[in-house]
Amino acid sequence: MHVVGIIAEYNPFHQGHAYQIQKIRETIASLYGDGENTAIVAVMSGSFMQRGTAAILDKWQRALLAMQGGCSLVLELPFLFACRSAQDFARGGVRLLAALGPVDTLAFGAESAELAPLLTAAAAIDEEATQAALHERLQLGESYARALTNILQQQNGLDAEILKQPNNILAIEYLRALHTYAPAIKPLLIARRGAGYHETNLGPLASASAIRQELRQKKPDWPALQASLTEASFSLLQRAFPQGIADTEELFRPLLVKILTMDSENLRQIFGLQEGLENRLLAKMRASSSLAGLTQALVTSRYPASRMGRIFPHLLLDSRLRDVKRADETGPLYAHVLAFDEKGRSLLHEFKKKSQIPLVTKVSHFLNSKERRHGTSLTPLANMLAFDTRATELRSLCLPCPYPLGEQANDFTASPIFCRPPVS
Fold it and tell me: Using 50, 70 and 90 to split pLDDT, how confident is the model at 282?
C-alpha cells in the first residue's frame, strides 16, 4: 500500500479538497501504477485552527467529511502545533507522520505550479547567511514575513510574489520540515485551482475563508454554498446551521475575564505574549468591544493579525511558553485517531507495529478528567493531550446556543468513527 499524508484543517471540507484528493490518486497511479492501493492519511487540526479561530464544525464531524471525501484515516494534529505559525504547524504535522512509520509521500497544495522554486526557497531559508540576516532584521523590528521575503529576494533572486502566497509559504515550510525530520518522505505538489485564500467569491473551488464568511451571515446564500461544497459537507452544514456553527467572537467576554484576573507577570508566561505584548494587550482590551476589534488594535507592522489571533486560545487555555517549548523538543507524542475506513484499519495495524508514538483511540487510557484537573503530575504526553481536550471544550463555548458542556461531543466520551463502505 502506498501511504500519502496530508496536513490540513478542512474547515470545512470543500470542492477544492475533494479535487486535491482526486489528483493525488491520479498522480500516484501514474507514478506507481496503482492508485486504488493508495491510502490517504490526513493529519487534521482539531478544535482550533492555525490562525486561532474555532473550527466551525467539531473535529469528528470534519473527520467524517474528510473520509467521505476520499481519506482512509484521519488523525488529530495536537493543539500545541495546530494553533501555531506556518513553520510550527508544518513541523508538527510532518513529525507526526514521520513517527508513524510507513508514510511514503506528503502531498500539499500551492499556488506555484512547479516544485523547483519552492525547494530553492526552502533550502535558502536554512542557509546560515539567511538566518543571520533574518535575525538582524527582526532585531530592528521588521516582521518575520517581510524580512524573510526581502532577504530571499535580494540574496537569492527569488520572485517575491511566490513568497507572498499563503499556500506557497506553507508548502515551503513542509519542504523544510521534510528535510529536517523526514527525508525519506517524498513531497508531492498539487497545484491549486480556483479561488485564492483571501478571495470572497463563492462557486466551484471557492476558498474555505469565503465559505466561512458566508456561514457567518444570518441568512447564508445556500445555493452558492452548495456549488462550493461537497454534497456531504453541504448537507451537514445546512443541518448544523446555526446552532452547531462555532463563532470565535463568542470568546470575547471570557477572554476579558481571563485577562482581568491575571497580572503582567502571569500574562508574560502565556505563549505569544512575550516582547512586551502583554502590556499592549492590557492597554488595547479596555478600548475594544469585540474580539475582531481587539485583534486589529493589537496589529502592528511587526505583529500581523494571524499572530495576534493565535494568542487568544493560548491565553484562555493557559498554554504557557514552557508547554510549547517542551512540545517543540519532543514533537507530537501520540496520534489521536478520529476516523478510519477498512483501508485505514489495515493501516492502523501497520502503524501499531512500527510507530514510534502510541495510537490514541480512547483518550481515557492516557488521561482522565481527574488527572487533568489536578494537572501538576501529568506526563508530557498527558499534558499535551490535556490541551486538546480543553480546546474541544473551549470550542463548545463558541456555539451560539449555550448547551451544557456535558452534552457536547468531547474527547473523553467520543470514539473514532468507522466508515463502512457504501452498500452497492
Answer: very high
| φ/ψ (deg, to 5) at 410 | -140, 165
For the CA atoms of 30, 34, 37, 42, the dihedral, rounded to the nearest 10 degrees, stands at -10
Nine cell digits for residue 221: 446564500
DSSP string, 168-183: HHHHHHHHHHHHHH-T
Cα distances (angstroms) measured from residue 194 to each of 14, 16, 111, 208: 12, 8, 10, 11
Is residue 64 within 8 A of residue 340, CB to CB? The reply is: no
Place of cell 469565503: 210
The radius of gyration computed from the CA coordinates of the chain, to the nearest angstrom, equals 21
* Per-residue CA distances from 366 to 59, 324, 335, 350 (Å): 19, 20, 12, 21
What is the model's pTM? 0.94
pLDDT in tens, 28-62: 998 887 667 899 999 999 999 999 999 999 999 99
DSSP symbols for 150-206: HHHHHHH---HHHHHSHHHHHHHHHHHHHHHH-TTSEEEEEE--SS-TT----STT-
| C-alpha cell at position 35 | 492508485
Checking if the pLDDT of 199 tops 70, the result is no
CA dist 308 and 163 (Å) reads 21
Q: Report CA-CA distances (Å) from 377 to 269, 370, 382, 383.
A: 19, 12, 9, 9
Q: What is the DSSP letter of 275?
A: T
What's the sign of the alpha-carbon dihedral 152, 153, 156, 159? positive
Using one digit for the tens of pLDDT, what is the confidence trace for 304-324? 899 999 999 999 999 999 999
Q: Which three cell numbers stand for residue 47?
A: 478544535
